[in-house]
Amino acid sequence: MDNEIAAEAFGAMGHPSRIQILRYLVERGRDGADASTMVRELEIAWTTLSHHLDHLKRAALITATRDGRRMVHRAEFPKVALLSSFLMQNCCAREEKTDETPARAYRGFGS
What is the pTM of this model? Predict the structure, then answer.
C-alpha cells in the first residue's frame, strides 16, 4: 500500500457516519448487514446511508452482495487490516529505542 491508496481509503472514512458504518460492519463480522438493518440500528436515514455506503464501496472498504432481494454489506477485512498495518508499520522507527518505547506493543506491525 502506498500513501495515495491509503489517503483515498482514509478520505472515505472522513465523516463520522462512515466511521460508524464501517465499525458496525466490522462488528457484524462475515454476516454483514443489509441496509434496512443498518437504517434501524444506526438510526441513519436511508438516503444518507446509501450515500455513505457508496463512499465506502468506492474505497473498497466494504462490499455488497445480493442475497435474494436484499443487498448485504460486509467490511472488507483485508483492506481494513492493511490500513491499520500501514499506519503502524514503522512505529517509533525514528525514536531512540528504550525499554519504554511504544514499538514493543506493535511488534506485529513490522517494528
Answer: 0.79
Q: What is the pLDDT along the chain (111 residues), one digit of tens a residue?
A: 888 888 888 888 899 999 999 999 999 999 999 999 999 999 999 999 999 999 999 999 999 999 999 999 999 999 999 988 888 887 777 777 666 655 555 555 444
Interatomic CA distance for residues 50 and 111, integer angstroms: 39
Nearest to 90 by CA among 107, 75, 73: 107
All three cell numbers of 102, joined, read 511504544
- Answer whether 73's CB lies under 8 Å from 55's CB: no
Helical spans, DSSP H, in the chain: 3-12, 16-28, 35-42, 46-58, 77-88
